[in-house]
Specification:
The protein is mainly β and about 375 residues long. The chain is built from three helices and 32 strands. Strand 26 and strand 27 form a beta hairpin.
Length: about 375
């Protein structure tokens, strides 16, 4: 047998005999570096990663744009999309849900990678700067807060049921009036996680929604609004970057992570950006953040560049800086059908199989960087 295969076989045996490390034990959770991936890019606060088509989707100027890791291209043009504030990916249907639009409206659109369909209008009241996430375990799209055309802030929220094309809404809740906050779905804790925003001050509260009630879990995070926040399905954590504070608006370069307790600030600094958002590209293991307002020699202004936070080796399942027998052991014990976000499902196709094994063996050894 080839010496390399003998070595790998020995690693498999060792990994199966000794407990494999959990992805939650990853030593590096903040990423390796920020990189300017593209100069001259679209961007808005509405963004998601389309896992089925392996591209990041955002809205800008009434157009849906897609980023494949090297270039932006226009996928669809619809003037009514201009001003859209939120896009969320539906893992169950492999579509993107798009909320809002020009004129503080409350339209709901569905994007399937080929066509755009208006699913509902006059849904929960026209609003901008909402927080939105898709809870794929309960099969609900959750929308909270926002700002009306008359500059009033909302404390109400709603859930959309794609199976019946209907909404359920609630009035005042414990969160109170809030806008320019961000929300992601955490499948580990089976909660929507909502952070930040603005209402008579920069808010630093982190709330969770389980479909029945809101819970304030911590105030340890940064007080920011229009920040960048996304779910890292490989390391099973929420990552927040940048954001803005008022008054005398200022953008920040810090990155934070959250795993259910207190927020942790990373030592790694990135580009100071606000009034944008980011999405996690699970296939390339990096966060994509297009555009945003930030400081320039001419003052605060929109910066048309796409920045990426490179997290590390996707095949380095336990995050220790090497692809080795421990990672192989993690893959072996999760072989077969996989839930969304399973770290060993390297290509995110819903199954841990020979394709993932080939990618892991191809990355064997020390991670670059």
């Amino acid at each position: 047998m080839h010496p390399r295969l003998v070595s790998i076989a020995s690693c498999v045996v060792a990994a199966l005999v000794f407990p494999a490390s959990s992805p939650a034990d990853a030593q590096s959770t903040c990423g390796e570096s920020w990189q300017v991936a593209h100069v001259g890019s679209p961007g808005s606060v509405a963004i998601c990663y389309d896992e089925a088509r392996r591209e990041t989707v955002t809205q800008s100027g009434g157009k849906l744009w897609a980023w494949n890791g090297s270039a932006w291209s226009v996928r669809w043009e619809e003037p009514a999309l201009d001003g859209v504030d939120a896009i969320a990916y539906d893992q169950n249907r492999k579509v993107c849900w798009i909320f809002g639009g020009a004129g503080y409206d409350d339209r709901l659109w569905k994007w399937d990678g080929t066509s755009l369909t208006l699913m509902a209008n006059d849904t929960i009241g026209g609003r901008a700067y909402v927080a939105m996430a898709f809870d794929w375990k309960r099969d609900r799209l959750v929308v909270h807060g926002g700002q009306s055309a008359g500059q009033w802030l909302y404390s109400s929220w709603g859930e959309y049921d794609p199976a019946t094309n209907t909404w359920q809404t609630w009035g005042n809740g414990p969160v109170g009036n809030l806008y320019a906050h961000k929300m992601v779905y955490d499948p580990v804790r089976e909660r929507c996680v909502m952070h930040g925003g603005y209402y008579f001050g920069n808010r630093n509260e982190t709330w969770t929604w389980d479909g029945a009630s809101w819970a304030l879990v911590t105030t340890s995070g940064p007080g920011r609004y229009v920040a960048n926040m996304a779910w890292d399905s490989i390391r099973q954590q929420v990552v927040l970057h940048g954001g803005t504070t008022c008054c005398g608006e200022t953008e920040y370069s810090s990155t934070w992570t959250w795993r259910g307790g207190a927020w942790t600030q990373c030592s790694l600094q990135g580009p100071p950006r606000g009034y944008t958002n980011m999405a996690f590209d699970v296939h390339r293991d990096r966060f994509v953040m297009p555009g945003g307002i930030g400081p320039t020699p001419s003052g605060r202004q929109w910066i048309p560049e796409t920045n990426e936070l490179v997290m590390g080796c996707t095949a380095d399942i336990n995050g220790d800086g090497r692809v080795d027998g421990t990672d192989l052991g993690n893959m072996m014990v999760t072989w077969g059908p996989a839930a969304p976000g399973t770290p060993a499902d390297l290509n995110a196709d819903g199954v841990v199989n020979s394709a993932d094994l080939g990618a892991l063996l191809g990355a064997w050894g020390a991670c670059p960087g």
